[in-house]
Protein 1
Amino acid sequence: MAADTAALSEGLLAALARRRATGAVVDAAGAAGAAAAQAAQWGVTRSLLVDDPVLEDLAIGPGLARDGDGHEVLVWPEGRGRGWRELLGLEGPELTMGVTVPRLGVAERGTLVLETGPGHGRSIDVVSMYHLAVLPASRLRATLGEALVETYARDGRPPSAVSLVSAPSRTSDIEKISTLGAHGAKGLHVLVVADR
Amino acid sequence: MSGRRPVVYPDTTAPLRDRTREALADDSLAANLRAAGASWGTARARISAENPFAQMRDRAREIRRGDIGDLPELLDRLEERVRAAGGVVTRAADADAACRYITDLAAARGATLVAKSKSMATEEIKLNEAIEESGLRVVETDLGEWILQLAGQHPSHIVAPAVHLNKEQVRQVLMAESGWELPTDREALVAHARTRLREVFASADIGISGVNFGVAETGTICVVENEGNARLVTALPRIHVAVMGMERVVRDWDEAAHILQILPMAAIGDDAAGYVNLITGPRAPGEADGPEELHLVILDGGRSALLGTDLEEALDCIRCGACLYSCPMWRSVGGQAYGSPYSGPIGSVLTPLLEGMEGERSSELPFMSSLCGSCHDACPVGIPLHDLLVRVRARVTTTAHRRDRARFRLWSRAWSSPGAYRLSVAAARIGLRLVGRRGWARRLPGPGAEWTSQRDLPTRWPPTPPR
Ligand code: SF4
């Protein structure tokens, strides 16, 4: 990995860690294994994946399905067919994981830029109990300003939704003490995939 | 219909003085506020040390001054771009117009359940009451707001609405709602709320959110949060209604990126919010979630009258809540005593300006400040809140304040004559000797009574040490 990319990944992961997210830099061959290991650590039994060539190239879906018995893998948008009650964990498994591929990652202050599209549901990470983000290292940018200007620079209609994610879901509404898992994902793990 | 609902809380019947007294006597409130203020102070000090906060603040001030200077033009651009993206925009002159638009929409779409994420603008227009009056169910989904809705209370802080309650008090409220026995354990209480509110997300027809700011360049609405409920509110229901104060516009993404970074620093002492939801129109063709309809309600509610006046800077506010935590008054009595959704220094400025100068809140709140200036220091956009407070004070015209002002004018005229000055000092000296005992006056008559109800007054200078 180029030196600047290494510094950017380090910046992103360090900033996220301060907000109690976790993550690692992995190479392409190790990504599927790392995703499965993280799912196992969280005890996840169902995953909801974005439909993205990055996940396909890295064989993340098959990697998760192989992990133990009965790990169910849904892919957006077909997975949406399950209905909100199930996706929200009110029915069926509670320990679920949303797997996303951010459009960009921001090193300074640690932020993922998730862009909505037909294959990228805007609710995937927050309906699930855990959030695994798979970010190709080439998508790292230094600052938020850079990332947002780039995201909105192109011609035509801007993306209908962009979610900036910088932490697991948290609330300080009870006695100002930060507690995880308020409404969105209780845990956030980022795999930065080094370029081949 | 008009005049049915004043802009800011009509339901505070006790006078401010009684409310603050009651708050001061509440020991558990004092402890909760102390803990909250201290935790904010520590986080904020750390984040200011780690970041070039002073420079960021200068830039933020420059941005907001520029945006408010060009507000009409930026609003037009925002409106045009939201429309181009397929959203519906409406401008509401006042609270009634905004509420009516939303309740009419709900009725037209046959909605029954409304899920809300935190929004001060909807507190301001008392939207929940309007929705309930129209026969629908509305549920706040921000944990703090939900707790308050269940407890029948109003928020005590812009960012941390339930900061005045402790976890045992929260547990009682949640047990009453569900009828379930719950442990006094923060994690368990949060998990419980998560499940209960998921039922709401799964079936709500309309999601209502606030707007931290709209980006004119692309017609994008920013909703900043940490829990994830705002995303669920804006992604799952069929219809999304966003309510925005008309001043909450920034020009472009460069400005937006800056404000997005300084806001959480000031608000929660972190250098990023957990989630920022950037929404441009309803769901696009081919997408399987997101609302089919997006409505943006832009609320005036007294704001446009401030443009071009010496109070205009009140519109720069990005509602971070830092001035509240920094304020010795707010830290002593909490937000509820203010009796307005906007409390603390910015609340004392905004409430009279939005509500009108008449009424008890407007004539009293601007005086709830020692003008120490800590709010100005805390403010990420550098609003000179203490100056604004003084300017708002000057506009208060109740009989009591007019009388006060006349008294001070007389006094100042008297003391500009050396003879009268010396005479009054001599008289005061004799008077104090008469009422004082062993060098201290413990109870003064007349206008001095307020002073001695809190502390003694020395009758000699230098004072004799109290025994
Ligand atoms: S006045 Fe300043 S400190 Fe107070 S809420 Fe507004 S932006 Fe924050």
Protein 2
Amino acid sequence: METILRTENLCKYYGSGENEVRAVQNVSIEVAKGEFAVIVGKSGSGKSTLLHMLGGLDYPTSGKVWIRGEDIFQLKEDDLAVLRRRKIGFVFQAFNLVSSVNVWENVVLPLGLDGQKTDEAFVKDVLRTLDIEDKIHNLPDTLSGGQQQRVAIARALASKPDIIFADEPTGNLDTKTSDEVIALFRMSAKKYGQTIVMITHDEDIAQIADRIFVIEDGKVVSRA
Amino acid sequence: MRDGKGKRQETKKTAKTGAAGSAAGKKPAGGSAVTNLALGSIRQNRSRSILIVISIMLTTLLLTVIASYGYGMIRSNHVNAGTLYGTYHGVYAGVGTEELHNMQLRSEFAQIGLAASAGTVQSGVPETGSGDVSMSLMWADETTRQLMNLDRQLADGHFPEKAGEIAAQPGFFRMLGYDNPQIGDSVQLNTRFSMQDYFGPETFVISGLIKEDTSQGTSGSYQAFVSEDYYNGRAAQQQYSVCFRLSDSVPVTGDTAEDVMKTLARDCGIDDRYVSENSAYVMWSLDPGRETIVGCALLALIVIVFSVMVIYNIFQTGIAHRVREYGKIKALGATKKQMKKLIFREGMLLAAAGIPAGLAAGYLTASVSFRILVNQSDMADTEGFVHVSLFSPVLMIAVAAAAALTVWIALKKPMKIVSSVSPVEAMRWQGRDGKTGGYRKGKKSIRVTGLTMASLSNNRKRTAMTIVTMGLSCVLFVSMANFAGNMDPSYDARKQIPHGQFQIELDYSLSDTAYPENNLDQILKSNPLESRQIREIGNLEQVTEIRVQNRLSAVLHRDGNDTKKTAVAVLSREDFENEISQGSTLGNPDYDQASADDAIFYGWSNFLGDEGYELNDMVELTLDDGSETRDLKMPLAGSFGSMDTEWAITEETYHKLGFEGESPGVIWIDCAEEDAEELQQELYSLTSGIEHLDMFSYRDALETSEEGVSMMKLFTYSLTGLIALISFMNMANTMITGIIVRKQEFGILQAIGMTNGQLGRMLRQEGLFFTLGTVIVSVVFGLPVGYGLFWYGKTHSWIGLHEYHFPAAEIGLMILALALMQLFLSRMLSRNIKGESVVDRIRYQG
Ligand SMILES: Nc1ncnc2c1ncn2[C@@H]1O[C@H](COP(=O)(O)OP(=O)(O)OP(=O)(O)O)[C@@H](O)[C@H]1O
Ligand SMILES: [Mg+2]
């Protein structure tokens, strides 16, 4: 299978001397196209830090990340931004939405920034599946935490990216909704050949993954 | 899953405490904890805190400067009123012995001083009788000298006591050929007591020398003092100018003084038209007068309103962000009272840093510049002038209180929000007005421009407030600059020398019976302006243009056999319009109509009644150009405000009446500016031998008027500069804060693929919107305000205000400044963001 995402000795250290925090250490992993990969680990183990670097949102202290064979940290900042809006979808742990525009606009924003036409039918479909179609005119701060997270998921899916990075996308959701969201991710992945990298604490989700990275003190200790 | 949730919450909690700053952790409870929290918040928002402190400081500085100036002006004038203007309240002219006696009987007059004109002196070489300089003799008694500060002007010796004594400036004696006058010297003068007398030689002994008045030019007038005996020995009938000081028991204020003095004059049998008030002394010694107080209060009010808006706006920007921050602290268990205290302390700590600095800087600025301004004026040269201190504790406290009050008002809103909403609501607070209710219609697709508009309309109130504050600061700038820019010293100078660089005019009397050759009718018979030398002027190579205004002598025939000699100016259309534009006309003068009717105009609107004429009367007169005469009845069509001659007709009428030759009364000579000096010398030598001519230069007039204008401009521009500086701080603060509090949101935008270029475009669009809004507000409000100010100044004859110019340059300058500022800010911002990873931006806590 084609490798879409690969890292080599990825490290991220915060601070220096006594206060040095080795958030991510020597991570070398590979994810194949179309795979559903999860990252698990204790709180503070470095999951989010790793995910941010995989998506080019944070610079590593050392090491490299390739997406479809391209060394992303060699790219210019603006080229990286363009790569993000075309090839990558993001769902953050917190602070996901732009507060001044409504739900619909939040979802279609990456397309707008890229100058693309919105596939309205598709976006509506996603919103319906996520059960937030009646909230499209709401401003983000009037939504519940779970609803906000679902809007972020819709946004990540709307541009049909090659890879979706999601940081605990189901963390605020009840079991039923959580299951539906995972089903949606998988369906979308299948239909569009997308790759998904997701952080989760949910054992059930980890069970159905194609690949699991267990991270401990910044090191990937096992992969399956 | 349970497990995961618990951990997540823990992380969040850490974030909450973290946001409040490390100071929060030091002490868990008590008043100092609140102060520590406030300090922590100030440190965390360092850049914004610095901006606020600077803004508060500058605002306080402006308030201090204005208050100190007002205070200094009133106090300096109050303290120095007597020194500067004399201690008399008014003067009655033309008072005879009987009326004087009436005055002396009244207790209202505390002091009565007498003075009288004691004749004129022939200047120059006595035989030729050329009168370039008016030199007069007068007598003033001791009380007058004291009330008018005359004794202080004495350089040496004493005022005349015996009949043959005289005191004057050395210049007076120099004019008569005594180059080094000393006390005790004998001088011979040609004097006469009145127009009916012949000049005759008289010998005086110099008893005193008066200080040279440096402001007096060569063409000034000199006054010499003689003794009471001298006056009494010559006057057939005593006629005094009586200057007096009212007794303290007379209830007068600056506004009523003139009426009181007029009533008193009538009671003493003195015509109230001969009353003149020493208005400067009356105003400053009694009370500053309503107008001054209202003016100062108005200015202070404008500044206070302006400061409130600026400080309020500074606190208002980023209020949503701050309310969310406060919400987190509240969630930790801070009580309502503690929350209020926290916000209040935060504001007051900033005020405590900004206000004293502003007071100190403002006082320093005011006292130094006030001293400079005072020293530049003639005032400070007056002996006995006291420099007042601008320091007034009451005023300082008032200014500090005003600034603190402003901060407090600005703090009320966040305090109210934070204490009235639940912590959760506070944490989510977006600062939206209630109307939108959390909904937004939105667009099907959205790009950079849509995002900009969304962010602006989402914060509609703040956007509007920012534009209005910025706009109003610019309004002040536009109207002030506009006003100062319209002060035109050349207009003032052109009032005196309407055309060209030099003015040569006839110097004549009207009814000198002893020396009829000095009268206009005689001079016109062999008009010196038509002499060979004057004709020569046209051949001088520097001269580019010569204009001539004709003048006729006239004899007015009034009721019965009463006749009066006078002069009539012949106005070209341009001169006619020029007189109209100076205002205060009567009867709507119109050149064509006047020419058609052969109408005549009076020269001084205010004195038409005194002259015994009314509009549309037929004026019976004989006009004379020196060679021909015409007996006429001309309709009196109106009057100009203030002219050189008593009467005027149009050029067309002049020709219609058949006056063939020229009878020039004034000629104006123009030349290239760089040739002026050279030409002046040539003109001097050409005209030096000719009698009955006066010469004036435009440059001299301009110089005098420029001196006055530059003071006003200096004041206006320094005020405007200060306002501009504060406005800049306000605008910079608004924009920087707007960017800082949205950094997180920018981070999200960039995470989903916004390029730096797009972000820059969004910020530029916002800036453009603010700039356009500001320009519109300032133009829509600033132009009328500026025009109003101009109009008020013009009708009150403020210096140099004449023609309104659209302040295109000022507005252009303002737009340029705004654009540069935008550029500067976006540069600064992109540097600020560069090098930070997207995650850092998202995590940024502002
Ligand atoms: N900006 C930063 N500065 C200093 N240390 C940081 C920073 N960001 C993260 N860390 C540290 O790096 C480590 C890993 O953090 P990370 O957010 O990746 O954890 P995580 O695995 O996502 O935890 P969780 O499951 O709670 O979200 C933590 O110890 C954290 O304190
Ligand atoms: Mg995490």
